[in-house]
Amino acid sequence: MKSLQRAGLLVCTVFAANTASAQELNQADTAWILTATALVLFMTIPGLSLFYAGLVRSKNVLSVLMQCFALTCLMSLLWFAVGYSIAFGSDGVEQGAFIGDFGNVFFASMTMDSLNGGIPAVLFAMFQMTFAIITPALIVGGFAERMRFSAMLLFCSIWLLVVYAPVCHWVWGGGWLGNMGLQDFAGGTVVHITAAVAALVAAVIMGPRRGFGTVAMPPHNLTLTVMGAGMLWVGWFGFNAGSAVAADNSAAMAMLVTHLSASAGSLAWMTMEWIRHGKPSVLGIVTGMVAGLGTITPASGSVGPAAAVLIGLTAGVVCYFATNWIKNKLRIDDSLDVFPVHGVGGILGTLLAGVFCSTQLGIFSGNGFSDGITSIGGQLTVQATGVIATFAYTAVVSWLILKLVDAMVGLRVDADEETQGLDLVLHDERGYDL
User: Which end of the chain is less enclosed by CB atoms within 10 A, N or C?
Assistant: First the structure.
């Protein structure tokens, strides 16, 4: 009898120890995700802000900076209020296929001691908040230099809650695409396809800027753009490597493949320009970098270095031609090339993740195997399903939101205001007053 009691006590002790271990704070992981969170926020302000600001005309430079800054503030509060709960619901609770529960409205189920894996639950929510900030900010490039500030705030607020948060749940929050086995490590569908499709729809609905196709609209300050591009490159390490949510081998490999793809994408775009136009441009090499980064994002946790170089090279070439095709052939004024760079890159990277994904990452990984799916064709079907579903849902809902906002406050400034510039018209300030 005593031996049975001792055995029972031993089992309970082991179970309790294992439970405590599972709930124990991992200080190394916590320190890394704290750093990664700051890096992703750094991508929006100042990274994306400066990248976009340099690309517009001088009369609109402050409007872009203001939009990115205001979105950072507004999206943060919306994510805290209800966005996180739509995307991830109550931590540790089984979720629905399409939307999370509302058990974490205003982070209601979190305390200072709550954990999500080995990191504080509030830290995971904050890390995901930075993704919810940069995604709407990316859309700004599609309607730059012509949308009302009030319309931008209203559109992005609704869009975050009815497009971004549900798609985030589908992929990362226990929804149907994640359960299907979609490989999207850091946001090929969740971030890049959603933002780019919304930007494309906005560009089509609002129409081109005055003078598009007849008046030259070169970037007014490429120095700002290059500075912003460098900040994006550095910040992207938090974006991709941080998505491992641990300080481990997966994070290290994600950081390496992110850097290699960005490098390859830059050189590929630069080479295409050099061949076709006789000279490589600064704008081309930094745009190629962004294409390489966006394309590796969904695959960064499941491919090796050699595959990353191939993905980056492909991104530089394909996104280069997509940019020319959309602006010169389709005549769509996606002002800062959000769709051809982020959208085409996100689609390409999501599909290529199904080709090169591997459970045994090495220098030449790329056997097409993934969790439970042992054929490239099977994984590609899953990847394509994710792309099509995200594209279609985002396009339809973004169109509806834009029409609603247009009816409420009007989407576009009038012709005289657009000619004068949004800095003075909307903010009564000048970017340059020399």
Answer: C
Instruction: List the domain range (segments joined by +) for residue 67.
Output: 34-426
- pTM (2 d.p.): 0.91
| Alpha-carbon dihedral sign for residues 398, 380, 235, 308 | negative
CATH number at residue 113: 1.10.3430.10
3 has pLDDT over 50: no
Within a domain: 177: yes
H or E segment to which residue 123 belongs: helix 121-143
- 400-423 in b/e form (b: 16+ CB < 10 A) is ebbeebbeeeebbbeeeebeebbb
* 3-class DSSP assignment, residue 330: coil
Burial class of 208 by CB neighbour count within 10 A (0 to 12, 13 to 18, 19+): middle
H or E element: which one contains 75? helix 61-78
| pLDDT score, position 377 | 77
pLDDT band at 10; cut points 50, 70, 90: very low
What pLDDT, on the 0 to 100 scale, is given for residue 93? Answer: 64
Q: Is the pLDDT of residue 5 over 70?
A: no
Number of domains comprising the chain: 1
Is 8 domain-assigned?
Answer: no
Does residue 2 lie within any of the structural domains?
A: no
